[in-house]
């Protein structure tokens, strides 16, 4: 328009060009935001330079973040495999999978995973002493792990992300050191991963331990008396948040199904025994923000029983299913997710706790309900206690008429306890790689790697990984989101090209009843980093590729709201499907 007065033809040309551009992009209106975003980033940097002030923000223009939302596990595995290193990872089984995909992990240690982290460091030393890797490889690997983020408190401050206006200098220095170490010792880090993976496969295979345990505990005489020689295995677990424990249960099922039992007795030498499984998943302590609701778990795993309702309805459904199944062995995988106060009731119903009549049941039930009633329990909990003799005792009386069975209480990785500490009157056996741990579920990944991609978004990202620096991260807390993005920036500088960071999870937790957050708010951190006065000053391009709307943190209401992608605030832009993602990444 500035030059339009000079030439009528030019006016027509320019107007036509502008209209043409609008027509092209009106089909996908949110894609035009990426171009305005680039202009915004350039304007911010130009203003900073012209003011003569020192730039106290971090220029993230060489990094693009893609938030995919939840994707099928097979797509998750394939994206880890094709991505560049290091791979941002948290949890336990996902961490083990990263190693078995031959990827160097950038491991986020949550407050409840320090035992796993410490035991893993010890296992690196043990693998070195056993000859699986050399000291020249183990030392840089341990140094790199030491630099990765570690959370020291279970509670996340509700306003922690509000201060995300400037990145502390010590954080930037640490990230630069990580990138420098990774670049200088990449071969040693890779060799260390290979050595530790081989040591875990040889020394810490959970399948060996659980088969031996079942062979020792089961009453095989009763099994061999049946016409169909099957050992009945009852699996159950509590899922609080996310799908991590459901994956653990599914893999435990796979291990059990692959077992071969050859049992001998005086009358039946060397008899082959197969297995039959019955699995139940409860969500008694489910976090309000969890996407893993009973309905969604049932959709993903129709082969499982997933009761819904309040705690007593789920407890009754769990125990009734077990009693009807009449198992030879009961396995809780894991038991550590159940509330401490509920465990005596579980042990009375499903474990070896010898119930001494009505008093024992009353004590177990009261142990669970007393804290709830102190907090002003609802009428349901009051009624459950006052009327316990009419619903719990008849149920448990049925147990006395059933054959005894052994119960194996499994813990999460490197999280176990003695019989005195467990509230189960039985030990919780910790899975994991520690000296006293019973092993890990060795991933069987070949089949998943050979499957075609289930989602177009994952397929496009895998194609990009063939030519671009594509980094993958599955994280849990706010600051690691920031730090991994900063690491991507350093790695992009080293390579001299753009970095595409893929994150499947951007956790957003609303504030309830004016209480502090017990879980993390990654989305709030990201929004505060990327706003115009945030630490990234709008220079980080964020592509939201979730299916449907995007979850957005509302700082005024302290809620997590689903927002249409066309309404996202810059520099966030929304895409639907693989082709729009490809266009946004072009």
Overall spatial form: globular
Number of helices: 23
The strand line-up of the biggest sheet is 3-2-10-11-1-12-15
- Rounded mean pLDDT is 82
Strand proportion: 5-15%
Q: Termini, distance in Å?
A: 28 Å
Task: Tell me the structural class.
Answer: alpha/beta
How many distinct beta strands?
15
Sheet with most strands? 7 strands, parallel
Low-confidence blocks of residues:
1-54
Determine the fraction of residues in helical runs and give it as a percent range: 40-55%
Description:
The protein has 586 residues and is an alpha/beta fold. The chain is built from 23 helices and 15 strands. The strands form 3 sheets. It has a 7-stranded parallel sheet with strand order 3-2-10-11-1-12-15, with helices on both faces. A 6-stranded mixed sheet has the order 5-6-4-7-8-9. A two-stranded antiparallel sheet has the order 13-14. Strand 10 (469-474), helix 21 and strand 11 form a beta-alpha-beta unit. Helix 3 packs parallel to helix 20, helix 5 (114-129) runs antiparallel to helix 6 (135-147) and helix 20 (456-465) packs parallel to helix 23.
């Amino acid at each position: 328009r500035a030059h339009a007065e000079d030439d009528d033809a030019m006016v027509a040309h320019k107007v036509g060009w502008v209209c043409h551009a609008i027509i092209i992009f009106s089909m996908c209106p949110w894609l035009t935001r990426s171009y305005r975003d680039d202009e915004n980033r350039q304007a911010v940097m130009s203003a900073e330079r012209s003011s003569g002030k020192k730039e106290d923000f971090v220029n993230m223009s060489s990094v693009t973040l893609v938030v995919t939302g939840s994707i099928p596990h097979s797509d998750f595995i394939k994206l880890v495999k094709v991505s560049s290193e290091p791979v941002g990872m948290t949890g336990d089984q996902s961490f083990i999978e990263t190693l078995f995909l031959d990827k160097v992990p950038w491991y986020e240690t949550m407050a409840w995973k320090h035992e796993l982290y410490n035991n893993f460091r010890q296992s690196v030393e043990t693998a070195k002493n056993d000859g699986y890797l050399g000291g020249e490889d183990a030392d840089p690997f341990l140094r790199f792990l030491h630099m990765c983020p570690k959370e020291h408190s279970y509670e996340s401050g509700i306003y922690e992300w509000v201060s995300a206006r400037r990145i502390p200098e010590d954080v930037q220095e640490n990230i630069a050191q990580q990138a420098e170490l990774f670049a200088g010792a990449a071969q040693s880090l890779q060799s260390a991963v290979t050595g530790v993976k081989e040591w875990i496969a040889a020394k810490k295979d959970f399948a060996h331990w659980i088969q031996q345990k079942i062979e020792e505990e089961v009453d095989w005489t009763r099994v061999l008396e049946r016409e169909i020689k099957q050992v009945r295995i009852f699996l159950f677990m509590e899922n609080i948040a996310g799908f991590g424990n459901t994956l653990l249960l599914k893999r435990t099922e796979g291990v059990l199904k692959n077992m071969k039992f050859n049992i001998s007795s005086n009358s039946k030498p060397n008899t082959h025994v197969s297995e039959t499984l019955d699995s139940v998943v409860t969500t008694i302590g489910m976090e309000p923000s969890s996407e893993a609701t009973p309905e969604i778990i049932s959709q993903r795993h129709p082969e499982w029983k997933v009761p819904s309702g309040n705690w007593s309805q789920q407890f009754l459904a769990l125990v009734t299913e077990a009693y009807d199944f009449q198992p030879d062995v009961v396995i809780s995988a894991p038991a550590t997710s159940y509330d401490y106060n509920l465990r005596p009731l579980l042990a009375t119903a499903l474990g070896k706790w010898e119930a001494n009549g009505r008093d024992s049941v009353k004590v177990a039930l009261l142990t669970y309900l007393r804290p709830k009633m102190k907090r002003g329990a609802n009428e349901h909990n009051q009624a459950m206690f006052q009327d316990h003799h009419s619903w719990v005792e008849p149920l448990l009386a049925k147990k006395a008429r059933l054959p005894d069975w052994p119960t194996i209480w499994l813990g999460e990785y490197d999280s176990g306890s003695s019989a005195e500490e467990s509230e189960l009157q039985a030990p919780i056996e910790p899975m994991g790689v520690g000296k006293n741990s019973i092993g890990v579920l060795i991933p069987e990944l070949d089949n998943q790697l050979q499957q075609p991609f289930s989602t177009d978004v994952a397929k496009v990202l895998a194609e990009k990984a063939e030519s671009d620096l594509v980094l993958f991260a599955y994280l849990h807390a706010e600051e690691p989101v920031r730090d991994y993005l900063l690491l991507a920036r350093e790695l992009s500088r080293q390579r001299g090209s753009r970095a595409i960071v893929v994150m499947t999870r951007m956790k957003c937790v609303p504030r309830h009843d004016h209480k502090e957050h017990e879980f993390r708010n990654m989305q709030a951190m990201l929004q505060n980093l990327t706003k115009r006065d945030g630490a990234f000053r709008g220079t980080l391009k964020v592509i939201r590729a979730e299916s449907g709307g995007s979850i957005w943190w509302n700082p005024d209401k302290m809620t997590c709201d689903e927002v249409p992608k066309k309404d996202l605030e810059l520099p966030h832009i929304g895409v639907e499907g693989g082709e729009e993602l490809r266009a946004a990444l072009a």
